[in-house]
Amino acid sequence: MKTCCESLRLDPGVRSDARRRLLSVKGHVEGVLRMLEDETVYCVDVLKQLKAVEGALGKVGQLVLRSHLQEHVVTAHGRGDESRIVEELMEILKYR
Amino acid sequence: MKTCCESLRLDPGVRSDARRRLLSVKGHVEGVLRMLEDETVYCVDVLKQLKAVEGALGKVGQLVLRSHLQEHVVTAHGRGDESRIVEELMEILKYR
Amino acid sequence: MKTCCESLRLDPGVRSDARRRLLSVKGHVEGVLRMLEDETVYCVDVLKQLKAVEGALGKVGQLVLRSHLQEHVVTAHGRGDESRIVEELMEILKYR
Amino acid sequence: MKTCCESLRLDPGVRSDARRRLLSVKGHVEGVLRMLEDETVYCVDVLKQLKAVEGALGKVGQLVLRSHLQEHVVTAHGRGDESRIVEELMEILKYR
């Protein structure tokens, strides 16, 4: 896992998976932008697409969160930075 | 507001406001993609940016929702399509 | 539906359904209170029960929201109070 | 903190704080039940109270979650149950 003196970083495999998914989110946003060029577009169809984008973003977040828990949170007591780790996590989870 | 026989469409002013905001969301997603190229990036910094993007997307959704309520939902009884309008809305709000 | 001069009120059938469900929510809360008397209770079991209670509360909210949409929102243009109705709704949905 | 062989349990101070808050949630639910006996009650007033109850429940959840993170999650690697701990947490956070 982590060696003692390396700073905390996002796992490389998760980082590349997150990039891949986020590229697809970007494509989805571009699709909604094209929808919005159509002057006959219906509000609810836009809202559905926005929800779908939010859902896809949420999946990226879950991926990164799971990796953070596995790599950095469960090991925090051993490193001694548990207080910072817990506060950061509570801050992020507040808005979920 | 609507003439009787026009189909329901997103208000043009709201449509262009939504496009403007969504372009900024796309820029924000590109920023997170650049973050993810950095192999020292910290999970929590990524999670914070993802939350910010979700927040910005949520604002676009609120804009479109408010317009839909004003233009199409409060007038549904007059048009006689209230049952479809209510079901669509409940479906969208379920995932909020 | 509404006669012109009656003030807006929750539909009686929905009101009694909401009461019935809310009584069950209250029973569920009492169950969690009993869980919390047990000094060996595990955090995650409490969190799961709290989620379940939130889910049940959310169902009551959906019931009341659907009725509000059907009875008061889709008819707002006819009554002429659409501006108040939309603002109230946006305020409530903001926190969903 | 934990002795090595004690099973994971909710911290006693947090447990009693959670009980106190949950008693107040129960009182709030009883208040909404009384509201629902009034046949002139307005949908939106009920929805606002339901949101307030959800908010109060959410605070209890945050309290228990923070304690779980502090007492059990940051120490999971030391105990060797990190895989279970992470899965449980992801499951709970999914519904937030």
How would you describe what is shown here?
Four copies of one chain form a homotetramer. Chain A has one domain (12-94): Metal-sensitive repressor, helix protomer (Methane Monooxygenase Hydroxylase, Chain G, domain 1, Up-down Bundle), CATH 1.20.58. Helix content of chain A is 75%, strand content 0%. In chain A, helix 1 (12-35) runs antiparallel to helix 2. Chain A is mostly helical. Residues 1-5 of chain A have low confidence and may be disordered. The longest helix of chain A is centred in the middle third of the chain and has 31 residues, at 43-73. The first copy, chain A, is elongated and about 60 Å long. Chain A is built from four helices and no strands. Chain A has helices spanning 12-35, 43-73, 76-79, 82-94. At the A-B interface, helix 1, helix 2 and helix 4 of A face helix 1, helix 2 and helix 4 of B.
Topology, pairings included?
The structure is a homotetramer of 96-residue chains.
Chain A: H1 12-35, H2 43-73, H3 76-79, H4 82-94
Helix pairs in contact in A: 1-2
Which terms summarize this structure?
96 residues, mainly alpha, Methane Monooxygenase Hydroxylase, Chain G, domain 1
Please, what is the average pLDDT of chain A? 92
Assembly state of the chains shown: homotetramer
Shape of chain A: elongated
Please report the total strand number of chain A as a whole number: 0
Number of helices of chain A: 4
> How many domains make up the 3D coordinates of chain A?
1
Q: Percent range for helical residues of chain A?
A: over 70%
Q: State the CATH architecture of chain A.
A: Up-down Bundle
Please name the CATH topology of chain A.
Methane Monooxygenase Hydroxylase, Chain G, domain 1
Largest sheet of chain A: none
Provide the low-confidence segments of chain A as ranges: 1-5
Strand content of chain A: under 5%
Order of helices and strands of chain A: HHHH
Radius of gyration of chain A: 18 Å
Corresponding CATH superfamily of chain A:
Metal-sensitive repressor, helix protomer
